[in-house]
Specification:
Blueprint: H1 3-36, H2 55-63, H3 67-106, H4 109-113, H5 118-131, H6 137-150, H7 159-167, H8 172-178, H9 183-201
Helix pairs in contact: 3-5, 6-7, 6-9, 7-8, 8-9
């Protein structure tokens, strides 16, 4: 084979290599565009990878200089305060009702003296605890007896009226005076109710 023929073969081989190189390069560039910049890519037409649906919450604290965090914390603390208060009221009512049950077991004569059965007396007291969880059973019994002793002469003196004043912090004596009794009358009525209840317990 002469030199001219070898030259042609070498030229043809170089052309083939060049064509293969161009084809390979173009294919690689096409794949790169499909992954990084096409419509199906993660970055095409959307927010940066670090930005998502919770970016408002994530940035709220920094944009408000911590005010959003304080607001959430304050709301939580306020809610907890209401919850704690509710639990305390329920605990007080439960303790007082338990004490009432013990009183009724140990002194069944109290219900008899008030001319009611023990179940009705307990149920009425339990209802009163819904309004005033701090109400003692002894005060409920006293208010009941005072209505029985004074209701005829002083129509304003009812158990409910006395309980409403006790719920505001008044004593039984103050409640009676608010309902129309004089100071001495209130003291005498209170002592009489206490004697009646004591006698009923001793039966």
């Amino acid at each position: 084979m002469n030199g001219h023929a070898l030259g042609k073969m070498f030229y043809a081989a170089m052309v083939c290599v060049f064509v293969i190189f161009l084809t390979t390069s173009a294919f690689a560039q096409g794949r790169g565009r499909g992954v990084g910049g096409g419509r199906g890519s993660g970055n095409s037409g959307g927010p940066p990878p670090s930005v998502g649906v919770d970016r408002g919450l994530g940035n709220a604290s920094s944009r408000s200089n911590g005010r959003s965090d304080e607001g959430l914390m304050t709301a939580s603390e306020r809610s907890k305060g209401r919850s704690d208060a509710g639990h305390e009221r329920a605990r007080l009512a439960s303790d007082n009702l338990r004490n009432a049950d013990r009183e009724l077991r140990e002194h069944p004569g109290v219900a008899d003296a008030l001319r009611v059965n023990a179940n009705d007396l307990r149920a009425g007291y339990q209802t009163a605890l819904l309004t005033n969880p701090e109400l003692k059973f002894g005060h409920y019994v006293a208010a009941t007896r005072l209505e029985q002793n004074l209701g005829t002469r002083f129509p304003n003196v009812t158990r409910q009226a006395i309980l409403e004043r006790l719920a505001t912090g008044d004593s039984i004596g103050q409640a009676l005076q608010d309902l129309g009794l004089g100071s001495d009358e209130a003291k005498a009525a209170k002592k009489q109710a206490e004697r009646d209840i004591k006698a009923a317990k001793n039966k």
